[in-house]
Amino acid sequence: MTPLELYDILKLRQEIFIIEQACLYPDLDGKDEGAWHLTAFEGDSLLACLRILEAGVSFKEPSIGRVAVSRDHRGRGIAKAMMQEALAFIKREWKETHVRISAQSYTIPFYAGVGFQVVGEAYLEDGIWHVEMVWGA
Predict the structure, then answer these.
(1) Structural domain boundaries of the chain?
(2) Long-range contacts of 75-81 (CB under 8 A, 24+ apart)
(3) What is the pLDDT of residues 98-132, one digit of tens each?
(4) Which of 24, 86, 92, 105 lies in disulfide reach of 129, CB 3.0 to 4.6 Å?
(5) Alpha-carbon gap, residue 43 to 132, rounded angstroms
(6) In whole angstroms, what is the distance from residue 53 CA to residue 43 CA?
């Protein structure tokens, strides 16, 4: 990843998770250095990104997080395609069959659409309701 690509990823995450959602939280949490980052570009413009974390970093299972799609490119199926690619990567490269995520509650239908199921009760994290969800192939 080039410094410019990293800048674009952090900028997009800031625009969505901090500014758009009006949520002050530490996006730079020390997990990006060891993460796999999946991005979608159109020319030089970053459309979307996510990060894939190995088992033991956030949960005992691998995890996918920081899924972000720029406002102008939502509704085109980019996030779904990226989630499917991330899940295929985890299964293919790490031979893992379960993935756990912490999802904002309003995104439950999206993640259910790629095979995740809610486990446990909703909890408040950084002022936003979340639930844990698990995918198992």
Answers:
(1) 3-136
(2) 78/40, 78/47, 78/48, 79/48, 79/50, 79/110, 80/110, 80/113, 80/114, 81/40
(3) 999 999 999 999 999 999 999 999 999 999 999 99
(4) 105
(5) 35
(6) 27
Query: 3: exposed, middle or buried (C-beta count within 10 Å: 0-12, 13-18, 19+)?
Result: exposed
Q: How far apart are CA 52 and CA 66, in angstroms?
A: 9
Fold of 3-136: Aminopeptidase (3.40.630)
pLDDT digits (tens, 9 = 90+) for 8-37: 999 999 999 999 999 999 999 999 999 999
Torsion of CA 12, 26, 36, 69, to 10 degrees: -30
Helix runs in the chain, H state only: 3-13, 78-94, 108-112
Residue with tokens 């899924």: 67
Amino acid identity for residue 37 in this structure: H
pTM for this model (two decimals): 0.94
**pLDDT at residue 70 greater than cutoff 70:** yes
